[in-house]
């Protein structure tokens, strides 16, 4: 991808055109983790991340503190979360650049799975929680991965307790017709499957990722100017 990101050899450009989708990225590669807007084709969240692991079983990436990202805001610049729920998804929006503040996030996604798992830490690397983000299974392209957020989420705590998050937003999205009944039911099924994994304390919760630390030599990836480009090729 742009800005000099190192990718695995399978991502190299062909003789006649742009680079195609990679099979796997090497650790240390810099890619984009993006989300399309709900009910539309445009990307409204873009986060440059560094690949920690990428293979047939798992994609793990690191979102470093201070990373320049793109996020949605209302057309007048109001942060989305400050808008009352009844009009949060119907008022006109735009996007703006911002920085990712905090202690950084480790994101884990298994191929074809309708959620990703994010790990959060408090300052001093005190582990805070896992966060299950229900979403469309990731689509890979030569510059990164794309998805669409499905509103409903789950928090999982170090003592293995858990609770649903954003059930009100999930309900409002259905009222605003951002997801039809069939999609809403698929999201509920994915949530139940994630809860079964939590209750069984399966992967990735039991895999020790809370003890992982980023390579201090990794630079913070830049946000490329064409962060919203349409992928030239999409893997199957």
From TrEMBL:
Region of interest: Disordered: 1-22
Family matches, as Gene3D superfamilies: FomD-like
Comp. bias regions, Low complexity: 9-21
Keyword Electron transport: no
GO molecular function, one term: hydrolase activity
Keywords in alphabetical order: Hydrolase
Domain DUF402: 85-202
PANTHER family: PTHR39159, UPF0374 PROTEIN YGAC
UniProt name for this protein: DUF402 domain-containing protein
Species of origin: Streptomyces tendae
Phylogenetic classification of the source organism: Bacteria, Bacillati, Actinomycetota, Actinomycetes, Kitasatosporales
């Amino acid at each position: 991808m742009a800005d000099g990101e190192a990718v695995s050899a399978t991502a190299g450009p062909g003789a006649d055109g742009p680079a195609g989708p990679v099979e796997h990225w090497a650790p240390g590669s810099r890619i984009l983790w993006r989300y399309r807007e709900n009910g539309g084709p445009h990307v409204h969240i873009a986060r440059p991340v560094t690949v920690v692991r990428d293979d047939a079983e798992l994609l793990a990436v690191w979102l470093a503190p201070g990373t320049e990202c793109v996020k949605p805001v209302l057309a007048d610049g109001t942060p989305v979360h400050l808008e009352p729920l009844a009009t949060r998804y119907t008022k006109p929006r735009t996007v703006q650049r911002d920085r990712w503040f905090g202690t950084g996030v480790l994101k884990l996604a298994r191929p074809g799975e309708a959620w990703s798992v994010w790990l959060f830490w408090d300052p001093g690397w005190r582990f805070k929680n896992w966060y299950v983000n229900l979403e469309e299974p990731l689509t890979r392209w030569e510059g990164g991965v794309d998805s669409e957020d499905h509103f409903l989420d789950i928090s999982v705590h170090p003592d293995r307790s858990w609770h649903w998050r954003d059930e009100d937003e999930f309900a409002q999205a259905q009222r605003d017709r951002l997801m039809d009944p069939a999609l809403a039911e698929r999201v509920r099924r994915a949530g139940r499957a994630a809860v079964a994994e939590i209750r069984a304390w399966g992967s990735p919760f039991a895999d020790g990722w809370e003890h992982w630390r980023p390579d201090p030599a990794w630079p913070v990836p830049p946000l490329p100017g064409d962060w919203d480009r349409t992928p030239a090729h999409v893997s199957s």
